[in-house]
Amino acid sequence: MSVAPPAHAAAGVAVTARGLSKRYGSGQAAVVALDGVDVDFAAGRFTAIMGPSGSGKSTLMHCLAGLDRPTAGAVRIGDADLGRLDDRRLTLLRRDRVGFVFQKFNLLPALSAEENIVLPLAIAGRRPDPGWLRQVVAAVGLTDRLRHRPAELSGGQQQRVAVARALITKPWVVFADEPTGNLDSRAGAEVLRLLREAVDTLGQTVVMVTHDPGAAAHADRVVFLADGRLVRDLTAPTAERVLDALAGLDPAGPATREAVAR
Predict the structure, then answer these.
(1) pLDDT, tens digit (0-9, with 9 covering 90-100), for 151-170
(2) Which residues pair with 146 in a beta bridge?
(3) How confident is the model at residue 250, as a pLDDT?
(4) What is the mean pLDDT of the chain?
(5) Counting beta carbons within 10 angstroms of the beta carbon of residue 57, is it exposed (0 to 12), middle (13 to 18) or buried (19 or more)?
(6) What is the value of pTM for the model shown?
(7) Distance of alpha carbon 159 from alpha carbon 13, whole angstroms
(8) Residue 105 CA, distance from chain mean position
(9) CA 131 to CA 235: how far, in whole Å?
(10) Helix axis angle, 254-261 to 239-247, nearest 10°
(11) Helix (H) or strand (E) holding 101
């Protein structure tokens, strides 16, 4: 399966954040979730975001994806400056240019697998490209499951439906938030393979939040957060190198590394 990379890939950068800050509350009770983050995510690459609990990784993804607005700073997806978009245009950008894969699948139980896959297009009043739909369905291995509803599918199959749904609009970027968190090791490995294939054969851009060093090892690059700040950047990651990097982010050192390994 192959297709020309998305047009934005020629620019080299799919998502950019500059001076990104997010503060909840005010005064002494204020919580700083992000503190001046500057980061680029290359087009046509697979990047993982990691960090200790409370480091700001999920908040960063939500701001990057336009699901939450930062307190300060700027985010660009492709050529769109999210801070300049009103709620309507931001909703349209998320629908048409961004794919999402969530830990809890977020499938509609009354719809078949195929109807869930094409749902973003149906909401936009657009018909799917039959050739692209066949490619995506074949890529995720669901050709013989399209008429099944979510309750008739395994957890791994449901997440494959979610991956297909994320790809159906040919988005500029796919954001995956702990996509293997509710899956067993075998199903999780299959979903990671699909995300890897989307990058390698479709030219897609994937940004994934994960706590799992094994999952992060499927990425081309891992960025690490601590206390809302970008503190490390690792290319060509392995599970072992990711574990070492995570251990170095916490004063507990080796004890943290052992806990992460579990």
Answers:
(1) 999 998 998 999 999 999 98
(2) none
(3) 64
(4) 88
(5) buried
(6) 0.86
(7) 27
(8) 13
(9) 35
(10) 140
(11) strand 98-102
